[in-house]
C-alpha cells in the first residue's frame, strides 16, 4: 500500500466514487493532515493555456465559502497532474435518490431553496456553474444539499476552446434554451437547470429525455409540464424558473424566496398593451329623444331621466385617459338628450284649445226665436183702453 504513488506526493487514492465526462472522483487520504478528502482527477490532453485557465478558475472556487458548497482544499495544473482536492461529503447523489421514486413536494421545495441559495452566492461572485444536474448534487446524512463540480463545466469549456470549436459544453438534458440555440450564457441558465432538476424530483422522471440533440431541441418545441397538484409556491417557482425567456426568470436569490414561500411574485413584469376599442360593425347613432309620456303617467312616475350610456363589461379596466374621455362623452350625451320643461306650454295650449271649443260650440247653436213685439201703447189711458188691449192679446194668441 505504501508503494502506491501519491497524487501530488501527498494524496493516497482509494476507491473510485464516481466518474464524469472529463474526470474521475476518488476517496483519498491527505497524508499530511491525515484526513479523508475527495480527489477529482482530470484526464490528460490539456495544453499550457488550458492548465493556466484551470488554475485561475480553481483559485476562484477555492475563494468561495458557503455551507452548501463543497470546499476546495488544493489543486494542481501541472503538465503531468491536473486535479482538485475537495471536501468529502458522505451521502448519495440526488440522481441516486430520485431513482428510488419522486420526492415529497415540501422536501423538493426545501432542497431547491438550499441549492438556489448556493447559486445566489456563486452568481454574486461572478461565476456561472453551467452544469447543474442531479448527479452534481450530494445529499448528506442530515438532509443537507451540496452543489459539487462547481464551475467544472466552465473549466471544461475553457479547456475545450483550446482544442476544438463549436462545442456546447454541458448536459443536454438540463440545458437552458439559450444554451441550445447558441445565445448568451449567463446566470439564468443555472436557474433554468435547477428548475428542471426540481421538476424531476417532483415527477420522478426526466422532463426532456433522449439523446443529446433530441433532448436539447425538445425544450425549444414545448415548455416543461409542471404538475398542478403540488403546493402553490412550488408550482409558481417552477413555472418562473423554467421560463423560455431568460429575462423573465427570477434570480437565484428570488428563486430561493419563491421556493420557501417568502415571496409570491418575483417575476419581472412585462408592460401590458393598452386595451383597444373593439371594431364597430355599424356607425354610431346619436341617442334618440325619449317619447313624451301621457300627462297622467308623467305625474305618476315623475320627470323622465335621459337615457344612460351603455355599460362596459365588468372585467374591463380602462386607463385614466380613456376613463376621462368616457366621462366627457357621457356628459355630452346627457346634454343632448336633456329637454326643457314643457308644462307651461302645454297649459297654454290647453287653454287655447278650450277657448276654441267654446267658440265653436257657441256659433253652432240654433238662433233663439224672436219675441213678438207689442204695438206701442196708444189711445186712451186706463180703463178706456182695456177693451182694445184685450182684443189685441186675443189676436196675438190666435196667431
Which helices and strands appear, and what pairs or packs with what?
Blueprint: E1 11-19, E2 23-30, E3 35-42, H1 48-62, E4 72-77, E5 82-87, H2 94-98, H3 105-124, E6 137-139, E7 145-147, H4 152-163, H5 177-180, H6 187-203, H7 212-221, H8 232-241, H9 252-260, H10 295-301, H11 320-337, H12 343-364, H13 386-398
Helix pairs in contact: 1-4, 3-6, 3-9, 6-8, 8-9
Describe this structure in words.
With 399 residues, this protein is of the alpha+beta class. It is 41% helix and 11% strand. It is built from 13 helices and seven strands. The chain has a five-stranded antiparallel β-sheet, covered by helices on one side. Strand 2 (23-30) and strand 3 (35-42) form a beta hairpin. Helix 8 runs antiparallel to helix 9. The longest helix has 22 residues, at 343-364. Residues 158-165 and 296-331 have low confidence and may be disordered.
Please describe the structure with a list of short key phrases separated by commas or semicolons.
two-stranded antiparallel sheet; single chain; 13 helices; five-stranded antiparallel beta sheet; 399 residues; alpha+beta
* Total number of beta strands: 7
User: What pattern of helices and strands is seen along the backbone?
Assistant: EEEHEEHHEEHHHHHHHHHH
Largest sheet: 5 strands, antiparallel
- End-to-end separation: 177 Å
Amino acid at each position: 500500500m505504501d508503494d502506491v504513488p501519491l497524487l501530488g506526493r501527498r494524496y493516497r487514492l482509494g476507491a473510485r466514487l464516481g466518474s464524469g465526462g472529463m474526470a474521475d472522483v476518488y476517496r483519498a487520504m491527505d497524508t499530511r493532515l491525515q484526513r479523508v478528502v475527495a480527489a477529482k482527477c482530470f484526464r490528460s490532453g490539456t495544453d499550457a493555456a488550458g492548465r493556466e485557465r484551470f488554475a485561475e478558475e480553481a483559485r476562484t472556487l477555492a475563494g468561495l465559502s458557503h455551507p452548501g458548497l463543497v470546499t476546495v482544499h488544493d489543486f494542481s495544473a501541472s503538465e503531468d497532474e491536473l486535479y482538485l482536492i475537495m471536501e468529502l461529503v458522505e451521502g448519495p447523489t440526488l440522481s441516486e435518490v430520485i431513482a428510488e421514486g419522486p420526492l415529497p413536494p415540501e422536501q423538493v421545495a426545501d432542497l431547491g431553496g438550499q441549492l438556489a441559495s448556493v447559486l445566489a452566492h456563486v452568481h454574486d461572485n461572478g461565476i456561472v456553474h453551467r452544469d447543474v444536474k442531479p448527479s452534481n448534487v450530494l445529499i448528506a446524512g442530515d438532509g443537507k444539499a451540496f452543489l459539487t463540480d462547481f464551475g467544472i463545466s466552465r473549466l471544461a469549456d475553457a479547456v475545450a476552446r483550446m482544442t476544438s470549436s463549436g462545442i456546447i459544453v454541458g448536459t443536454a438534458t438540463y440545458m437552458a434554451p439559450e444554451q441550445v440555440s447558441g445565445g448568451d450564457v449567463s446566470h439564468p441558465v443555472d436557474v433554468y437547470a435547477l428548475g428542471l432538476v426540481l421538476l424531476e424530483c417532483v415527477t420522478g422522471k426526466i422532463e426532456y429525455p433522449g439523446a443529446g440533440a433530441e433532448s436539447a431541441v425538445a425544450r425549444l418545441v414545448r415548455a416543461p409540464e409542471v404538475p398542478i397538484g403540488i403546493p402553490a409556491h412550488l408550482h409558481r417557482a417552477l413555472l418562473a424558473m423554467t421560463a423560455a425567456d431568460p429575462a423573465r426568470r427570477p434570480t437565484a436569490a428570488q428563486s430561493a424566496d419563491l421556493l420557501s414561500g417568502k415571496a409570491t411574485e418575483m417575476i419581472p413584469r412585462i408592460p401590458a398593451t393598452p386595451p383597444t376599442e373593439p371594431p364597430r360593425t355599424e356607425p354610431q347613432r346619436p341617442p334618440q329623444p325619449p317619447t313624451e309620456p301621457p300627462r297622467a303617467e308623467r305625474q305618476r312616475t315623475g320627470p323622465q331621466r335621459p337615457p344612460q350610456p351603455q355599460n362596459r363589461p365588468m372585467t374591463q379596466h380602462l386607463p385614466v385617459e380613456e376613463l376621462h374621455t368616457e366621462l366627457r362623452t357621457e356628459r355630452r350625451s346627457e346634454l343632448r338628450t336633456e329637454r326643457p320643461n314643457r308644462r307651461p306650454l302645454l297649459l297654454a295650449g290647453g287653454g287655447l284649445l278650450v277657448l276654441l271649443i267654446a267658440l265653436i260650440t257657441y256659433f253652432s247653436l240654433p238662433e233663439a226665436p224672436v219675441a213678438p213685439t207689442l204695438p206701442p201703447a196708444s189711445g186712451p189711458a186706463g180703463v178706456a183702453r182695456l177693451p182694445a188691449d184685450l182684443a189685441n192679446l186675443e189676436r196675438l194668441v190666435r196667431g
